[in-house]
Amino acid sequence: MTTALPDAEVALATLAERMRASVAWDARFVGIYSGGAWIADRLATLLPGEHPVGYLDVAFHRDDYGSAGLKGAGRATKLPFDVDGAAIVLVDDVLFTGRSVRAAINELFDFGRPASIELAVLVDRGGRELPIEATYVGARVAVARDLTVALSRGDDGRLALAFERSGEAG
Amino acid sequence: MHNPQLAANGQLTHLLTLEGLPAPVITHILDSATPFVSFGERDVKKVPLLRGKAVFNLFFENSTRTRTTFEIAAKRLSADVINLNIGASSTAKGESVLDTIDNLTAMDADIFVVRHSESGAAHLIASHLNATGRSHVHVVNAGDGRHQHPTQGLLDLYTIRHYKKAFTALSVAVVGDVLHSRVARSLISGLTTLGTPDVRVVGPQTLIPTAVESLGVRVCHDMREGVAGCDVVVMLRLQNERMKGALLPSTGEYFQYYGLTPDKLALAKPDAIVMHPGPMNRGVEIDSAVADGARAVILPQVTFGIAVRMAVMSLIAGNG
Fold it and tell me: What stretch of H or E contains B264?
């Protein structure tokens, strides 16, 4: 059932095109570390308007903390704008179970009450375990559950998608 | 002997001492503390990592400050905190420490924060829990006798790393009552593990433990020689309450020789930082002009201390 992964740069261009018409002119782009942070940076340059970029570390709100312990050591949430009343686009690389997004929304609310939150993801691989859907999707793929889809960034800044066979994903 | 603070897979499950704690574990704790430092920027200064966990502060020896910082750290992690001033209760009625622990474990304690005047108390409790199949209950040593005070050592390491970035080219002077100081012992263990090339202990002969050189430090009895050219000056509190017998002629004379004054600090590097674990005795080990001066990082130490304690409790509770 596993399909081939798309080219990450093509998926990013598609995602930006799908956002162009409807994203608020002053929407804040908030990337989830680390892949989502890279994509948020890129989207802010690709899309017209004023898009301050922030970054979220979701470790404090993960629901697998009891079994997986504290993750993401050393990265702190950075939101260089007021969350209260802001239009926010949450950005992540791969949407899978929806648990990271749930944690990210909780983390955002620790900083204030946004006017709205949309979700933009580079890849939607299906397999949701929570009632969460993306507003904007770069590419959809079908992937076996035991495979992890990982985004990497080269020295030249180019993004790439690859399979990793390991435990968890979000 | 197996290190009782590490689980079989090498993860930290109790924090008892910095002695023998591997460098990657120390670095991981310091890295984990970083996100907690910026906690003040949140509207909601609380995260759910320890929601539903019970943290018991067991203070067999009084310490308002350390107990308060652990209490704040645990509450910001959403734990339920129970403060027990054991000195005034069960032990006074004759109950043994381990019986107290068994009783509190039966009340579903998840973390014990232990302060005791006897060296090795936290170690004893952790070994007892491990040996009786209750290794899911964690112990944090908040100071045992003259032995160790690992969270203070970690917050000192965090402070040094924050201002000086790396340990591998640093000169650090630890000045004062090293003999009675578990703070000094924890810091020295951590500094040497992380590769600090030059650690000096400075103080009068009566307040420097014998054979302290075996810890990998240099002893200076002359304060001016001791702080010359160093990057970090750590002042220790003169522990009046621990002094037995006449170790010092007078606090006035102590200040003259070992008090940190602006002219002595001038011998250190121009960007040297001054640390103190608190509470300070102004005019005994430190001059007010230094304590309130631009080089002092004593209040940031307090802020970092909460973050480090949050990291330690989150890590051990998450490791099984």
Answer: helix B262-265
Residues B141 and B245 in one domain: no
Q: Which of B11, B41, B78, B313 is the mutation pick for testing A, counting most A CBs within 10 A?
A: B41
Instruction: Confirm if B67 and B115 have CB atoms less than 8 A apart.
Output: yes
Residues B169 and B297 both lie in one domain: yes
Task: Report the 10 Å Cβ neighbour count for B168.
Answer: 9
With an 8 Å Cβ cutoff, are B35 and A59 in contact? Answer: yes
B94 and B179 part of one domain: no
* Burial group, residue B203, by CB count within 10 angstroms (0-12, 13-18, 19+): buried
Q: What is the DSSP string of B102-117?
A: HHHHHTT--EEEEEES
Cβ partners under 8 Å of residue B164, min gap 6: B170, B231, B232, B273
**Domains of chain A, each with CATH number or no CATH:** 8-165 (3.40.50.2020)
DSSP state of B143: E
B89/B225 same-domain check: no
Is the backbone peptide bond immediately before A34 cis, with ω within 30 degrees of 0?
Answer: yes
Q: Which domain holds residue B280?
A: 150-302
- All residues at 6 or more sequence positions from B236 whose CB lies less than 8 Å from its CB, including other chains: B174, B175, B176, B177, B178, B181, B183, B184, B276, B277, B285
Same domain, B161 and B288: yes
Based on the fold, state whether residues B45 and B62 are members of the same structural domain.
yes
Element (H, E) at A137: strand A136-140
CA–CA separation, A45 and B42 (whole Å): 28
What is the rounded average pLDDT of the residues B70-88?
91
Burial of B83 (0-12, 13-18, 19+ CB in 10 A): middle
pLDDT at residue A169, as a whole number = 44
Shared domain for B208 and B224, answered yes or no, is: yes
Across the interface, which of B42, B44, B314 has its CB nearest the CB of A70?
A: B314
At residue A170 the predicted structure's pLDDT band, cuts being 50, 70 and 90, is very low
CATH of the domain at B169: 3.40.50.1370
Cβ of residue A58 closer than 8 Å to a chain B Cβ = no
What's the CA gap between B164 and B33, in Å, rounded?
Answer: 17
Sign of CA dihedral B166, B25, B194, B70: positive
Query: Among residues 140-169 of chain A, which lie with CB inside 8 Å of chain B?
Result: none
Q: Is residue B167 part of a domain?
A: yes
Tell me if A76 and B38 make a contact (CB, 8 A cut-off): yes
Distance from CA of B37 to the nearest CA of A (A): 9
Answer for the pair B84, B101: CB distance below 8 angstroms, yes or no: no
Residues B254 and B216 occupy one common structural domain: yes
What is the complex's ipTM, to 2 decimals? 0.77
pLDDT tens-place string over residues A33-53? 989 999 999 999 999 999 999
